[in-house]
Amino acid sequence: MNSNRKRSKQDQNANFEFTVENLSKALFVVNKHAKTAIEPKFLYDLKKKAIGKLLAEGKAEKIGLHFSKNPKLAKQTSTVLITCGEYLFHLIPSKEDFQSLPHLGDLDDQYRNPKTNVSLKQAKALLIAYTGLKQPQLTNPYAPSTTKQSMSPFAKRYGER
Question: Is the dihedral of CA 119, 121, 124, 126 positive or negative?
């Protein structure tokens, strides 16, 4: 049983190699979970920063622009299609992207990214180590406050009325 624990730790450490394959799998998992998360802001920030770093290092490439499937307030918006390893991702385009990238039209519903068996915890840990982004600490609204609440000088306690 001890050997199984050692193997799983070795497997986890092997996933911390910053290869294109490992990073693209981690991005896929983080992106998939961000779409259904209650607080997706950090996951999307992590995705954006990781893709930015991959593009800067030449490990990812911008292919072109796609029409967005679900535009918010506009009738038609575009997203940048990015390839990283075997995976495709979309990001919000910059002004330069509209000038330099070709427009590919509508999304191709036939293509699906390959499935992966990386957990969200491992994917986040890999991308945090890669980007250096820190995860914000969540505050518990139900936890007792550490500061003593002061009472109004005009308020009377129960029984002093």
Answer: negative
